[in-house]
Design goal:
heterodimer; A: mainly alpha; MetI-like fold; B: alpha/beta; six-stranded mixed beta sheet; 38% helix; binds adenosine-5'-triphosphate; binds magnesium ion
């Protein structure tokens, strides 16, 4: 049984922090930024699909949405990382290529999973933001002589995006924290790196405490940056 | 030939027949004021005129061409028929100047400098040049409506439609908008105006139409309508509304 006296925070910090602020943080930041940008793009296209009057497309998207919202992100990541490549191999086998090996890097699987998961939630944000824009805006554009499509893309969507920016910011914050789930698909991000360090040093208390503080600091910095960005991007109304 | 000729126009929303059989015409340069009780179909009628609502039946002839024909160039037509709304509907993320230049630049492919010069002249005309670079939400309702008028005029319309342009305004702001509209009428603009401002109708209109229950009940000069209404429904409406 370890006692509080033999906790050695300075040593754990000296050894663990360089690991965390090296490759681990790099993975978290890159995955977060890439997945966030892709998620907004994905969500936008998804929202347009849902807003289209195409019944079949709408049906498919609604079912997809239920799948994503009805299963945990962790399960989705595991599925993409472990199961999806197996399917590809089976298909390759059917197509007469029995030796084909498919592997997905953990980071790529993470980006895909986070993009689809967050994109699906973000699509609802964008969709309702588009629907919330006053119909008078579209009518004013039509009355000037713009087409429906132009009214949508030039007048409605820019306003919907501006109105969504604060919500996007919140999603970015949770996305950064959710990258920790990639530890379960072997991505050497912050949590995985910490676990690896603990398994060598048995410094459970110190290491997880340090990890928690590192996440806290990242999120505080990020939410500060988001506030500044919001003030710049969202025009007063 | 009338600029706009409306024959047997009908519009239903589901089972609700809002316009039953509207017949009338608007001559070039004419100022037509449409009055009538709430729910009588005035807005619906005006919205049919620039196809924000699709009529259920009848004909609308613009320069002799039926605008309800499938091949009719609706967008070009809408560029020639401006519309001002009760709630202004300025684009909130653009400055006043950009609101006014947006249509000409993107639809008429006007060079930016020219569009801005024209916009400034129009803003000058409606008394809003000083506010060219602010955003609409900093303006009063009356100011926003005058900008909206300038935005429509920037498209060089042949005709303007107004749907209760002053009824969302505080009473002290009504005058400035009506004044702008009167100037427009004096410049010879063809106008169709739905309004409850009877003084405007008396002073500015060439013709007044009284609508009730989805039909044109009376169509006459303002003098006749206001001093000598023939239909009992017109009389009843006017005595209610002019009871001041
Ligand atoms: N999009 C719509 N769907 C269903 N019903 C509608 C629609 N637009 C208008 N109506 C109905 O049509 C009728 C006429 O409405 P309209 O707005 O044309 O009247 P109005 O004469 O402009 O009245 P007001 O003076 O109150 O503006 C009303 O009963 C209204 O409820
Ligand atoms: Mg109305």
């Amino acid at each position: 049984m370890r006692t509080l006296q033999n906790l050695n925070f300075p040593k754990a910090m000296a050894e663990l922090l360089p690991k965390l602020f090296g490759q681990a943080l790099e993975i978290v930041l890159i995955v977060s930024v890439v997945a966030f940008v892709l998620a907004i793009l994905f969500g936008f296209l998804f929202a347009l699909g849902r807003l289209s009057h195409h019944k079949i497309l709408n049906g498919i998207l609604v079912v997809f949405q239920e799948f994503i919202r009805g299963t945990p992100l962790l399960v989705q990541l595991v599925y993409i990382y472990y199961v999806f490549p197996l399917f590809v191999e089976i298909i390759a086998y059917w197509c007469g290529n029995p030796t084909f090996k498919c592997t997905l890097s953990a980071t790529v699987a993470g980006v895909i999973g986070l993009t689809i998961n967050y994109g699906t939630y973000i699509s609802e944000v964008i969709r309702s933001a588009i629907l919330a824009i006053d119909k008078g805006q579209t009518e004013a554009a039509l009355a000037l002589g713009f087409s429906k499509r132009q009214a949508m893309f030039r007048i409605v969507i820019p306003q919907a995006f501006r109105n969504s920016i604060p919500v996007f910011g919140n999603y970015l914050l949770t996305l950064v924290k959710d990258t920790s789930l990639m530890a379960y698909i072997t991505a050497p991000e912050l949590l995985q790196t910490t676990k690896a360090y603990i398994s060598q040093t048995f410094t459970t208390i110190e290491s997880y405490s340090i990890l928690a503080v590192v996440y806290l600091v990242i999120c505080l910095i990020l939410s500060g940056l988001l506030k500044v960005a919001e003030r710049k991007l969202v025009r007063r109304r | 030939m009338a600029l706009l000729e409306i024959k047997n126009l009908q519009k239903s929303f589901g089972d609700l027949k809002v316009l039953k059989d509207v017949n009338m015409s608007i001559e070039e340069g004419e100022v037509l004021v449409i009055i009538g009780p709430s729910g009588s179909g005035k807005s619906t009628f005006l919205r049919c005129l620039n196809l924000l609502e699709t009529p259920s039946g009848g004909e609308i002839l613009y320069d002799g061409k039926d605008i309800l024909k499938p091949k009719f160039a609706v967008r070009e037509y809408r560029q020639q028929v401006g519309m001002c709304f009760q709630r202004f509907n300025l684009f909130p993320f653009m400055t006043v100047l950009n609101n006014v230049t947006y249509g000409p630049i993107h639809l008429l492919k006007m060079p930016k400098e020219q569009a801005q010069a024209e916009a400034m002249a129009l803003l000058e005309k409606v008394g809003m040049a000083a506010k060219a670079n602010v955003y609409p939400d900093t303006l009063s309702g009356g100011q926003q409506q005058r900008v909206a008028i300038a935005r429509s005029l920037a498209m060089h319309p042949k005709m303007m439609l107004f749907d209760e342009p002053t009824s969302a305004l505080d009473p002290e702001l009504v005058g400035e908008v009506l004044c702008t509209m009167k100037e427009l009428a004096d410049d010879g603009m063809t106008m169709a105006v739905v309004t409850h401002e009877m003084t405007f109708a008396e002073d500015v209109a060439d013709r007044v139409i009284f609508m009730d229950g989805g039909v044109v009940v009376e169509d006459d000069t303002p003098d006749e309508i206001f001093s000598n209404p023939k239909n009992p429904r017109t009389k009843a409406f006017l005595s209610r509304i002019l009871d001041r």
